Amino acid sequence: ATVIAARPEVLNHNLETVPRLYRHVRPGAIYARSLELLRRAKQLGPAISVKTGMMLGLGETRAEVLEAIAALRDQGADILTLGQYLQPTREHLPVVRYVHPDEFAEYKTLGEKMGLRHVEAGPLVRSSYHAFEQERSAATK
To answer: How large is the average pLDDT for residues 111-124?
Structure first.
């Protein structure tokens, strides 16, 4: 509530991955709590763009990604970034697979058809990737 009261243009909280992989990928986080945070942000600040991001390539299925996108839409998310997970060090989780650019393009199309105002998806996309342009694009929809 304190952050929303400051009236940011965008509130970002990254979901990171699908429910099945959450405990493994984000051991200190809870999937339902992340969704709740996004829902509350939109509820408290309907005019504020709510943004989130996910990494792909950790072992998620297409169906799981689409279910997560639907859950994000249902919580009021406006902007979604989808990027390829890249293992930063040997101590981090390994890449399970590299997602083809065509699959990223499909998620962009499907996410926007499902009701998200803007989806940025591609192998090198990160949550801050073209953030200003994403917000402007979402604001015009």
So the answer is: 96
Residue 115 phi, psi dihedral angles, 5° rounding: 120, -5
Q: Are strands 118-122 and 10-12 parallel, antiparallel or unpaired?
A: unpaired
Instruction: HSE, CB side, 13 Å, CA atoms: give it for residue 30.
Output: 4
Give the whole-angstrom CA distance, residue 79 versus residue 134.
Answer: 7
Backbone angles phi, psi at 15, to 5 degrees: -70, -35
Q: Taking the CA atoms of 25, 29, 32 and 34 in sequence, report the sign of the dihedral they define.
A: negative
Mean pLDDT of 103-124: 97
pTM of the model: 0.90
108-113, long-range: CB within 8 Å, 24+ apart, which pairs?
A: 108/82, 110/66, 110/69, 111/69, 111/73, 111/80, 111/82
